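Can you give me the bound-state structure? Components:
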Amino acid sequence: MLVKRASDIRSSEISDKTTYLSRRQFLAAAGVLMAGSVAGESVVSAQRQAPRGRKLEPVQKSAFSTPEKPNTWQQITTYNNFYEFGVDKTDASTYAKSLKTSPWSIAMEGEVAKPAVWTLEDVLKGMTLEERIYRHRCVEGWSMVIPWVGFPLRDLLTRLQPTSRAGFVEFTTLNDPAQMPGVRNPYLRWPYTEGLRLDEAMHPLTILAVGLYDEVLPNQDGAPVRLVVPWKYGFKSVKSVVKIRLAAQQPVGSWQRAAPQEYGFYANVNPTVDHPRWSQAREVRLPGLFKNRPTEMFNGYGDQVASLYSGMDLRRNY
Amino acid sequence: MSDRALRFVLKPAVFVASLGPVGWLVWAALTNHLSVNPLSDITNETGVWTLRFVCITLAITPLRRVTGWNAAIRFRRMTGLFAFFYGTLHFLTYVIADRFAGLDFPDGFIAWSTARNLAKSVSEDIYKRPFITIGFTAWLTMLPLALTSTSGMIRRLGGRRWNLLHRLIYATGIAGVVHYWWLVKADISRPRTYAVVVGVLLAFRIIRARLRAVPVRAPVRSVRLQ
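Here's the bound-state model for the whole set.
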């Protein structure tokens, strides 16, 4: 992977002029709003989008990408659930600036041939980066379309050589109170963890993302490296991964532990299995005003992944 | 404060200020200042302001008792009606953006079938989901209070019966807090704050009623709050 320095990039490469100008207008407006905003719990605060990052290249196109129109950079970087920085959607864009993403290393543990700690550069060595434009469905009932850049998780897992006992993969997010104000509150048990079955993790749709819109992943979206599993609710896609553990036993995820009757291990997008408190039959595609979009089974990836669950009762294994 | 100042300055000022949240929402929606999820912004703002106005309304009697400022009572109808106003906006947001938006329209938007399907969709959801049931209950308890808020209705019902009826707002406060509590995914700190506020305001009434019910004895008399 080549990472160009920011100074190598002409602004025309980053965005066309209208986008650029509208962004400037937006920032000016955000300034006005900030000055006038009231301190309050749900008052929509000024949105701070991430500064544009370094360009990633080369990035290949992928047949797995949806032709749907992706959400804008601004939308994807100002509306984030990243509880390590706070529970409000704008907390990540406000506080994630403090996250230090370089150097970054990932511990590879458990049922693998050679447990080791790899730097992100080690992980990326020899990997081909692909753009994967995926639908993203949050368990809360909203969705976006996001142009991730990453590589199939299976390419990494294969290199790790899982042992014959490995049946599951557990991912862990960084847990650093010095950088992440949210982890001082115990509303979830930190660090944040989530797990996949090994065959789910090896599925070609499952990626580790390091970029957005062909640029380095912004902090609020889970920099420098995050999981993306597009047929599952967003909370399964762990951000800022520091540990990947191959396991013989099915791991328990953070949300599953917090509310097992509401969040299961599988968390596949499923319009026929409601959240106990709200329906999952429809979603609002952001930025929309109406919850009128029918939610698709496996978030529309059923052709690729339904066979993973054949014979399973998805009502029980939610 | 003079009666004139109250009537012509303070009350209109409170009225205009109470329109602030909805004014801000309309402005932000028209000028693109809502977040990427405008539906959730509108839902949250109208919901939270309903609960705030319920709390303000519940605080008026304790405020009178504690401070002796009896003119506070003259704001109670207004704040109560604003609670109903924001609660109705909140409910309508749900009915339109969540229920209406999910309907099929076999005979076009304006048709009897649309009204029927909408009524069915809303009532089924209220029946099925405790979170919606309790929220609807909170709104429903405000409805008779809003309808009987006029001076004419107070006269017609008589003060005693009117007062009894309007104790329904205690139920509004409790149902509203439970609704908020059941909404959050993990961090209960905000609903808990409202639970404490509503709890204190209701406890004030219970304690006061107890104290007044105790046979008159000197030690009790000395701690009466009036």
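A couple of observations. The first strand of chain A starts at residue 2 and ends at 3. Chain A has nine helices and 15 strands.
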